[in-house]
Amino acid sequence: MKQMYIMKNGGVDVLRLIAADDPLPAAGEVRIRVRASGVNFADIMARMGLYPDAPPKPCVVGYEVSGTIDSVGSGVTERLVGEEVLAVTKFGGYSDVVVVSERQTFVKPKRLSFEQAAAIPVNYLTAYQLLVVMGGLQNGETILIHNAGGGVGLAALEIARHIGARTIGTSSTRKHEFLKSKGLDHALAYQDGDWYQRLMEITDNKGVELIVDPIGGENWRLNYKALRSTGRLGVFGISNVSQSGKINYCRLLMTLLRKPKFDPIHLMNRNRGVFGVNMGHLWHEVDKIREWMRQLLDGVEDGWINPHIDSTFPLQEVASAHLYLEQRKNMGKVLLIP
Fold it and tell me: d(Cα 159, Cα 131) in Å, to the nearest integer?
């Protein structure tokens, strides 16, 4: 087995590929020969020491894989050996072999490649929780998707279009034509800082019903201001504290000092809602995750979910994958191939 370890907090130079014996599955577990692993911004935050849920270092991160089951523990049917699956992993995904609970695995749809399958768990479960479970997005409503060209952003776009919502997204201008080809109704540039003014023009100063934001910082205030009556703001990250592989401590401090405080009385009077999503805190809700995944895999079979892969990197080139993601170069999912 080969695994990519984060040896200590820091830049990409703290990553090390280490070999070890293959693990054996315990009762209720399966072992997967990994064909592809997802890279997510939470992995980068863990490397920097900004993800409090990460295991003590040195550690192996990674939340999702696809591959083939080659061994099972007691209590698991031998018929699963040879099954092609995708799986959610509580860390450990940066590896060519993983062991997980059988209940954390899902049969890979035949129409998906291993790469596409590995792009499903984190991005689509996060987007589903943001839009459907907690955001309650309805046909005819309008959604603003920040970082619309990222993995979660594209997943949110597919789900929103399936629901029948009007879609607005922020991204760098170089991604706008791509996003429009994916069905985005309105693309806004976030670099020039006037996305709020453009949003209000597009919506005739009404605002939108749902905003999903992984950026944080000043965005939180503008997002809340841009909500229409009955509007909801879903937050799921603070990616603005990272810059070119390093922690931007000035931004981190300003984000913490300037984060808005949402008063319940004010929320009632404005008919607005604010909620947060952290998939890493849902490991005790296996039944919920399995039901959400069932809905998503039905979407794959029905043809309206089609994960977009931006790029793949060999496992030993995780550093390049991290930098690529941090610099917002990706349009869709970034993967590691063992």
Answer: 8
233-253 pLDDT per residue, tens: 999 987 655 555 455 555 555
Most confident of 216-225, 246-255, 316-325: 316-325
Is residue 212 within 8 A of residue 143, CB to CB? The reply is yes
Q: Domain 123-279 sits in which CATH superfamily?
A: NAD(P)-binding Rossmann-like Domain (3.40.50.720)
Q: Which residues pair with 100 in a beta bridge?
A: 30
Average of per-residue pLDDT values in the chain: 93
Does 58 sit behind a cis peptide bond, omega within 30 degrees of 0 on the bond before it?
yes
Q: Domain ranges for the chain, please list them.
A: 2-120+307-337, 123-279
Of the candidates 1, 9, 10, 17, the one whose C-alpha atom is nearest the C-alpha of residue 318 is 17
Query: Up-side HSE of residue 111: CA atoms within 13 Å toward CB?
Result: 11
C-alpha 279 chain-centroid distance: 9
State the Cα–Cα distance between residues 110 and 123, nearest whole angstrom: 20
Domain 2-120+307-337 fold is Quinone Oxidoreductase; Chain A, domain 1 (3.90.180)
Q: What is the pTM of this model?
A: 0.92
DSSP E strands: which ranges in the chain?
2-6, 15-19, 29-39, 64-72, 84-88, 97-101, 105-107, 142-145, 166-171, 186-189, 208-213, 227-235, 242-243, 246-247, 273-276, 309-314, 333-337
